[in-house]
Automatic annotation (TrEMBL):
Record Pfam families: DUF5998 (PF19461)
Domain of life of the organism encoding this protein: Bacteria
Protein name as annotated: Phosphodiesterase
Length: 194
């Protein structure tokens, strides 16, 4: 007998994973719990990404949480002190998106040596769109007359691009790639079942 993911509350697993990152776990857990607001945690994914700021390393943690009704995105960054806050500090932003607002889940898998048959993806990029942000790619429009010098305006593509996350086996490990694929599958299934 299989158990539906929605029937399980994975909040304890989420908290354990946040603790395992060691990246300000109390701060991150409090912000995520506040955004989840008591709903069950159906699925989640964490991505820890260090960035280089001159001669310092800054850390960034993304936490994606799927509840029965919402997709929660939380981002925590660390900052050096500044004029307003002289001591080092973190900033965490959370966004809660209704599941019925998610209109696309794009998953791109990069497979090395595809002629050797099926293998584990070396990289995965997941892009989620819900209409909050769109990317516009424009180029000059033209016609088939090579002597035409009229202005035909522009043509382009409008692509939803609210959130994008790239995970690679080389940087994050094969387990992280597999967990992102699992999260993407759970999210895709939820958008299918509405």
């Amino acid at each position: 007998m299989s158990t539906r993911t929605d029937d399980l509350d994975r909040a304890d697993d989420l908290r354990a994973e946040i603790d395992r990152t060691g990246y300000y776990p109390e701060v991150v857990a409090d912000c995520v719990a506040s955004a989840v607001a008591g709903e069950k945690v159906s699925s989640f994914f964490l991505h820890h990404e260090p960035t280089f700021d001159r001669d310092e390393v800054r850390r960034h943690l993304s936490v994606l949480v799927l509840t029965p009704t919402r997709l929660i995105l939380a981002h925590t960054d660390e900052h050096a002190g500044d004029d307003l806050l002289p001591e080092p500090y973190t900033s965490t932003s959370t966004e809660a998106v209704r599941i019925d607002s998610v209109n696309s889940v794009v998953v791109t898998r990069m497979i090395t040596n595809p002629t050797k048959g099926s293998s584990k993806p070396a990289e995965v990029v997941m892009t989620i769109g819900w209409g909050g942000v769109n990317r516009v790619d424009l180029e000059p429009a033209g016609c088939s007359d090579p002597n035409c010098d009229a202005d035909h305006g522009y043509t382009g593509v409008l692509t939803p691009d609210d959130f994008s996350l790239r995970v690679s086996a080389a940087a994050d490990g094969h387990d992280s790639v597999a967990r992102l694929l699992s999260f993407a599958e759970s999210l895709s299934a939820r958008t299918h079942n509405r």
